[in-house]
Amino acid sequence: MTVPPLAPYPATRLRRLRQADWSRRLVRETEVRPADLIWSMVVHEGEGCVPVASMPGVERLSVKEAAKAAVRARDLGIPAIAIFPHIDPSRKDAAGSIAADPDGVIPRAVKAMKDAAPEVGIMCDVALDPFTDHGHDGVVEGGRILNDATIERLIEQGLMQAAAGADILAPSDMMDGRIGALRGALEADGFQDTMIMSYAAKYASAFYGPYRDAIGSAKLSAGQGDKKTYQMDPANTEEAIREVALDIAEGADMIMVKPGLPYLDILRRLVDEFRMPTYAFQVSGEYAMIKAAGANGWIDEERAILESLAAFKRAGAAGIITYFAPWAAEKLG
Ligand code: PBG
Fold first, then answer.
1. N or C: lower Cβ tally within 10 Å for the chain?
2. Atom 11 in ligand 1: which residue has the minimum CA distance?
3. Residue 223: is its pLDDT beyond 70?
4. What is the ipTM of this complex?
5. Where along the chain is Mg(2+) bound (predicted)?
6. DSSP designation for 232
7. Pick the CATH number of 32-332 from 3.20.20.70, 3.40.50.10860, 3.40.50.280, 3.40.47.10
């Protein structure tokens, strides 16, 4: 694209269009609407709402409260909700045995939410970490995360979620080949309409910290103190292109970049390269930073939230997965 030559100052004054709210609105290039938001939500096995200490304003919701929240999402014009489970530590084991339990909190929440507000899309995380006592997303053997054995478990889990009525399955584990395997299993079992949003470019990030608190996932152990053997190195861009190309070839309907704000360059690059519906996950640490700085009066919290959401749209996101969704939809609706 070539930019036409500008007449020199003073004929060209870019500030002319910025002088009033009406003219700023008139030339605005992007806009965040409630329809751009996916509400990131934690559900728990108990009753009521339990605040998450490191994420002020976020609560773990019971199945009943999650159903009410689905109605609220519908009324606010939020198209979809992504749910994540908090599991009692006493029910976790090394294999994450209850990850595919059809009576678990996730399938119960999906059913209750779809009953209460069938118009709202429900997205489920496909991963083992909420259910394992070591906190990894996969099957661990001798300190190694086994790729193919993990995929078998993810397929059981994903099929169970689809059977419960989940609209979108979102594998967040970063095992190789899991999108193709899951797509194949869904087709074979008659779930051809179940969508897949791949956590395609997911980085081994420090910004997931508060999420561990929110879902009560274990501190990483088992000889591996981090997720660097499956999640991507924050230093890499070209590798993200290869990851996403594979996931699209394997059948992903939508792709995601995670975390969000520190990775806008990756988002832009992927949108330009693949022209797929591409989503940004504004993760727990991003939420916590804005809330903490806001609570201290160091930033204007409301403006910072809206500015961050606008930045995702400007960078090319089709939508944003965010814990701010209900607040933002109310503000923007
Ligand atoms: C794990 C998963 C994580 C998040 C979503 N799914 C954490 C991780 O990969 O360690 C992070 C969400 C957030 O930080 O808000 N499968």
1. N
2. 208
3. no
4. 0.98
5. 243
6. B
7. 3.20.20.70
